Amino acid sequence: MRLVLLGTTGYHPNDRRHTACFLLPECGVMFDAGTGLYRAANYLATAELDIFLTHAHLDHVIGLSYLFDVTFAHPLSRIVVRGQSEKLSAVEEHLFAPMLFPIRLPCRFEPLAGPVTLAAGGRVSWFPLVHPGGSVGYRLDRSGHSLAYVTDTTASPDAPYLEQIRGVDLLLHECYFPDGQAERAGRTGHSHTTAVARAARQAGVGRLVLVHINPLATEDDPIGLDVARSIFPRTEIGEDLMELDF
């Protein structure tokens, strides 16, 4: 399977990265809808799109308001936005309040219940994460391949979600801070380098790609890649428009 990283930072975009958005073009699946969503039309290969939201913080949902341009460039017969019920309600009530965005989106909202069977085959399951306001992570299994997406949470080698991602081929995991800001990571509900690498090792994943990088850190190595690789060698830093096969 192919995954395109449309946005790899959190909170706000910078000159190097847009906020969280990840697309599997041939599956018609997107995880989160940050500012990178506007790029989706260049990659979509299906007539249907399922968007899975981790939570409703603005850096993860603002891109929903870009769907009109995406569908103009790449027409879609069906768009479903999925997430926890209270998060979807917040998006509909506040982000798309008439005084902010008066036009109805070309999609429908469906609350998460059990695992979701995809039109293109495969299944997406979800699991709770600890984060201010609440968040969820996702696991996709399709045709013998697997992917997990974990963001906006504080990693640890004994976190309950590790059982949900155990053995996946590819793990996308937030790493907002380097180790020098570990205390700040815990206080804000985010992760730092060593904790993420240890979580990946404990879960026995095949490959780790670090995303949701602090937008204030614009250097090539903002999180200490050598530290991560000393714990989990198959670690990379995600970059916008990177394409991953797994």
Describe the model:
The protein is an alpha/beta fold and 246 residues long. It has a single domain (2-245), classed as Ribonuclease Z/Hydroxyacylglutathione hydrolase-like (Metallo-beta-lactamase, Chain A, 4-Layer Sandwich), CATH 3.60.15.10. Helix content is 21%, strand content 27%. It is built from 7 helices and 14 strands. The protein has helices spanning 58-61, 67-73, 85-95, 162-165, 182-188, 193-203, 225-231; strands at residues 2-7, 21-24, 29-31, 48-52, 78-83, 108-111, 116-117, 123-129, 135-142, 145-150, 170-174, 208-211, 235-237, 243-245. The strands form 2 sheets. A 7-stranded mixed sheet has the order 6-5-4-3-2-1-14. A 7-stranded mixed sheet has the order 7-8-9-10-11-12-13, with helices on one face. Strand 12, helix 7 and strand 13 form a beta-alpha-beta unit. The longest helix has 11 residues, at 85-95. The protein is globular and about 50 Å long. The chain starts with a strand and ends with a strand.
